[in-house]
Structure formats: C-alpha cells, structure tokens
Amino acid sequence: MGNSRGMKVLASLIALTLAAISPAAQAQDVAAVAPVSRPALDYEAELQRTLEGYDSTGMVASVLIDGEMVYLGALGTAEEGSNRPVTTDMAFPIASISKAFTTTALAILVDRGKVDWDAPVRRYIPEFAMYDPWVSEHFTVRDALTHRSGLPLGAGDLLIWPDGNAAPADVIAALPHLRPSTGFRDGYAYDNLLYIVAGEIVERVSGDSWADFVTDELLVPIGLTGCAAQMDRIPEGMSVVTGHERAANADAGVPVDERLQFSPTWSAAGGIFCTAGDMMTWAKFWLDDGVTQRSERLLSEAQLAEVWTGVTPVSAPGFLKASGSSHLALYSLGWFVQDYEGTLMVRHSGGAPGVVSNLILLPEKGIAIFASSNDYRPAAHSFTYHIANALIADEKRDLIADLGAAFRSAEQNGEVLIADMVQAPGAPSAPDLALPAYAGTYRDAWYGDVHISQDADGLFIDMSRSEILDGALTHFSGNRFAAFWPDSSLKADAYVDFLVEDGAVTGLTMQAISDLTDFSYDFHDLQLQRVN
C-alpha cells in the first residue's frame, strides 16, 4: 500500500550535518545539555480527541522522552460493532515503516563487508534489469531504497495489491517491462517493488530468508518481543487488530476482507506487525545510537549516519511549510529526514489494509512518537504531529483540530471524487460494438492477463492476479466501460477503455475513477494487448 500503501509520506535537509557529525557525537552533545523542561500534556485526552475527530474505530499511541516511555495508550474497539477493545499489547501492521527494518538489515550486511550501498544490484541479483539497459547496469542498492528509479508512483503494485499473487521472482521479471515516467535519478516517486528487490538481496547475501534475518538480527537482539516479521509469524494467542475501510458516505468502517492481508512477498516493503510499546523500543534503539537495551551495538556509527543521510529531495508537508515549521525534506535509506522547528525530524508512515500508522523521531530532542488507527484515515498523523508541535514548537497549534477539520471538509464538500457515485452522463447509449466483440484475453508484459467475458448480464472483468478485482462492467459511453468492484470500500473503481482499430478491439487501458484511489492501484500503467 501503499504508503505502504500508503500512503502518503513526507521528510529534511539535515543530510549535510549527518555527513559530518556521527549519531554518537550527536548523542554526546545532547547528553551534555541540561535536561529540558517539557510541557505537561494529557496524552490520553489528545488521543481521545483524535479518535473522535476522525471517527476512528480504534487507536493506539506511545511517546518516548529522554529514554522513558511517558505514554502508552489504546482506545476504541478492534472491530466495528464488537466488544473487543483495542489494547496496548495488540499487534498492528506498521506497513511501510517496515522499510527501515530492511535498510537496517542491509546496513548490518554492509558492516560485515557483504553488501555495498553503491554496488550494482546485479552483483547480488544477476538477472535484475530495468526498462533501459544502461540503467539496468548502473542501478545500485542505494537506488533501490531511495525512490529515484524513474518509475512512476507505485509502479507495478498491482502484482501484489490488493491481493496479488506475485512472488519476488515475478516482481524481478516484471521490472524490465515497467516504463519510466522520469529520467533515472531525476526525481522522487514512491515505490514498493524495489524494496522487495532489496529483501531479495538480504536473502541471497545472508543465506537466510528476509524474515529469518530480520527476526534473528533485529527483533530478537533489540528486544522487540511484540513484533513479528510478517503476519504468518505472529505468535499464537497474540491479539491482532482488524483494519477497517468505508465506502462513500458510510457512517462507520467495516472490517477489511481477509484476502487483503499482505502476502509474504510484501514483507521487506511493508510486512511487519508491532505493538505500540515495541515501536518505542525500536525508536529507543535509534535514539541510543544503534545500541540495544543489553548494550549490544548492532550498527557502526558510519552506517547509522549513512541510513539517515538524505538522498532524494521530496516536498515537506504543506501544512508544516505554511507555518514555517519545516522547509526542506529528503528521503534517506528507509526514512524521511527533514528540518522541523530548527531540529532534525526522522519519520515514516505506513498504510496497510484498513490501518494507518505514523512514527516520528526527534533525535536531538530525545523524543519519539507513534500512533496507529485501525481505519484507513490519517488520524495517526494528526496525533503524532500535534504531540511533536506541543513538545517543541515555539508557536503551539492545535493540529488535531486543524488537520481533522481539513479532512472532514474534504469529505463533506465533495472535494474528492468518490468512484461509486459516478454515473454515465446524459441518456443511456449503446456501446460502439456488440458486446461479444469486447470479450477476450488481454495481456500486459509486466502484469499478465486480464480476461473479459460475457454472460447474460453483460461483460465481466477478471484481473487474474486478484480475486477481489473481479466484477461486472457497466457501459459508460462509446467504448468506455466502468468496473465497479463488489467491495465499494476499496474506492478503486476504474474506467476500462477498449482500443478499437478498423472495427476490431485490439487492446484496453484502465484508469482509476476516483482521486481517492490509493496509488497502489496502478491501473494506468497497464498496456493490455488483445491476445485472443
């Protein structure tokens, strides 16, 4: 998802500082300063306000200050209409926040001399290729981690989203067929597939599966007993939250289809589950210079600095720029880094099916903030940014109120197009061709086959890699149809445009109808040619 699904992400320019000053030196400087007086905050009340402001089913949050967890809380229910409460020992999918675990695994391998950030990916995966032969030869491990490949946003995610069945080998085979939208290293476009490639590098170099390596080299030594490398590794009996989505104008979220849960292929890009408390243990590991609670150093100072060194420029969040809180942001290795109120902010968000999370670190202030909501709404961002502002900003802002009001306004005023409210303009018209003319198999080089069939009710589309993206086609106009998927909470309905030459259908293209559709539904990247 993106952002992870996600999601849908943000970051800073302190890369120059990080290049010159190691995290250890920063920690020493901070330790030498007299303790800072922090404002007294009612975290529980702020979480309650966030929950109510976004009509969230449930939320968890945690805050760490100067090495101590000052808040750990949970509100709401695990499923809409149930009596099962959200609890602090409940595992939440952290989605794309998992990317930092993958880069940390690679950093360990760099320290061991087994991986080089600037080595071509082909050194570790000989069959790796991109659309352009020169790019294929020069594409480095660092390129795979910093969203500067030249591919469009979320390119190829339909291989594994929403319930795609692709394996890592399928992802690698698909990459040469994905067309770039910018030049190589010319700009920022968030992706997930290249983190799957990064996970494959971990596996081939270490000889262990990505999940085994992350578990043995990170989760266990750091003490993340409430985290699992992927869903099928969650300990039996551990409580797991249920994600919720909602269709247009729905009063409450509904539990997501179980088929939407991330497959193991997602793991390196967004497959980890954690409790809110363990997210503070993870944060403390970074704030403590990569040293575990047992005083074990997992990363060298050089690699700590490398992971937080910005690479790809991105836009700082608009609401922070407008207030003067932030000006510059970069994507580093699995993290966003940016300036915030004159200090360094390191962060990442994550969007899983029906769950949105956000993690903020303020290393120079000794602060970490995490929140997650089991609704696909930006409640977690409002809470974390509000707490960051309350703790360190000179000008206090009620970001829970401000961001929540903006979100509600967007919903109420119809500033976003909801796909299942679209209707064909004017009087109904017949398709340009008889329905049997559109039926057939259409093939895309990276995705595979899409099947169009006809029955007594009309045309039906089968996306082949997904059971969820199968549904009836509704005629719109001319050779344009619309796919309204049975699960309207996906907000992913799509136009299906058949290409006709000399009276014969030769192919089709697709595009999402709604501006709300998650970027991982990259229908627009498909170039489907008719094969029968």
From TrEMBL:
Supply the Pfam families for this chain: Beta-lactamase, DUF3471
Q: Does the keyword rRNA-binding apply?
A: no
The Peptidase S12 Pab87-related C-terminal domain covers which part of the protein?
A: 425-530
Signal peptide as annotated in the record: 1-27
Alphabetically ordered keywords of this record: Signal
Domain (Beta-lactamase-related): residue spans on this chain: 49-379
TM segment ranges: none
The cross-references to Gene3D superfamilies, in alphabetical order and at most eight, read: 2.40.128.600, DD-peptidase/beta-lactamase superfamily (3.40.710.10)
- The answer to whether the entry has keyword Ion transport is no
Q: What is this protein called?
A: Beta-lactamase
Species of the source: Aurantiacibacter atlanticus
